[in-house]
Amino acid sequence: MIRTGAALDHCATSQFVTDGGLETDLIFHHGVDLPEFAAFPLLDSANGRDLLGRYFEGYAGVAVAVGAGLLLETPTWRANPDWALRVGYAGTDLDRVNTESVRFLRAFGRTYADVLPAVVVSGMVGPRGDGYRPGAPVDPAEAADYHRPQLAAFAAAGADLATALTLTEVGEAVGVARAAADIGIPVAISFTVETDGRLPGGLSLPEAVAIVDADTPPSHYLVNCAHPTHVRAGLDAAPTTKPAAGAPSGDWRSRVLGFRVNASMRSHAELDESETLDDGDPDTLAVEVATLAQAFPDVRVLGGCCGTDERHVAAMWGVSLSARGAG
């Protein structure tokens, strides 16, 4: 069994800066065309790799400023078979880009090895379906088979862990956790919630955590792609599913070690229909994140999701940045 938080426990720091909304930042601030919201093809061009490097430099700078560790997430949220095929990647090409994503960030992280207490590289897994429009319930065994090749590529490339972001359904989360356990790579599970603080299917966060932990406990959990006020809206929900024997004990909140929040208070449906970026106010978002974190005393990872950039993440960490221009 993977020990709670084990993926981060070996590090010389307990706090980690991670990045913001990569795809929305590239599209709206840099004018980059990302078909199907897929950023991983940028790894296959010199210009794309340079752009990614400059993107991650902003968050590395925040980590340096506060003396925290840096959690680097590969730009592979769409690098699974269904989504990748839509942008021309399949088979060995897909394995190659997932492997290369880890190597790219490992090389980037070495630049900061002497100035940061820790640099951790995580392979990012995204949902098989649309994170904003969840479909039917997912069979865990099918999900494990589906996500196993990407997780195996991350493990073979030497990723420290994997993180499955924007999961809307517990069956898929269980499948990812099972596949990661089979391969031997620590994995974090990150659910997204609607404005009521519940998963799209109606489960509360404590219920979702209990169900996954009862089957195959991951290293830890996060919540992403939701505004802090949306997460808080569901905190009073009580779990109805008890963990099985051997699952991590204690309050479910102790299993949530990170947040990657949206800048906007809009619902997923509203964001999906929007043609403009709602990047909110970084300072206001930072206050909301701090309020949310008070309810989760074990949080170690803070970053952003849709609509956020280094301004928002810097504000969360108390770092002042001058207003950025579209670049």
Walkthrough of the structure:
- The model is unreliable at 323-327 (pLDDT under 50).
- The protein has an 8-stranded parallel beta barrel, surrounded by 5 helices.
- Helix 6 packs across helix 7 (170-183).
- It is of the alpha/beta class.
- The chain has helices spanning 6-9, 22-30, 46-66, 81-86, 91-110, 140-157, 170-183, 205-215, 228-233, 268-273, 282-293, 310-316, and strands spanning 16-17, 69-73, 119-125, 161-167, 187-191, 220-224, 256-261, 301-304.
- The protein is 41% helix and 13% strand.
- It is built from 12 helices and 8 strands.
- The protein has a single domain, classed as TIM Barrel, CATH 3.20.20.330.
Summary tags:
13% strand, disordered C terminus, eight-stranded parallel barrel, 8 strands, 12 helices, alpha/beta, TIM Barrel, 41% helix, 327 residues
Gist of the model:
The protein has 327 residues and is an alpha/beta fold. The protein has one domain (6-316): TIM Barrel (Alpha-Beta Barrel), CATH 3.20.20.330.
Based on CA atoms alone, the radius of gyration comes out at: 18 Å
Strand content: 5-15%
Measured as a percent range, the helix fraction is 40-55%
- As for the number of domains, it is 1
Calculate the terminal CA-CA distance, rounded to whole Å: 45 Å
CATH superfamily: Homocysteine-binding-like domain
Task: Indicate the CATH architecture.
Answer: Alpha-Beta Barrel
> Major sheet, described briefly?
8 strands, parallel, barrel
Question: What is the succession of H and E elements?
Answer: HEHHEHHEHEHEHEHEHHEH
- The first-level CATH class name: Alpha Beta
Low-confidence regions: 323-327
Mean pLDDT: 91
As for the CATH topology, it is: TIM Barrel
- The chain-level structural class is alpha/beta
- Lateral arrangement of strands in the main beta sheet: 1-2-3-4-5-6-7-8
| SS elements, strand count | 8
In DSSP terms, counting alpha (H) and pi (I) runs of 4 or more, how many helices?
A: 12
Silhouette: globular
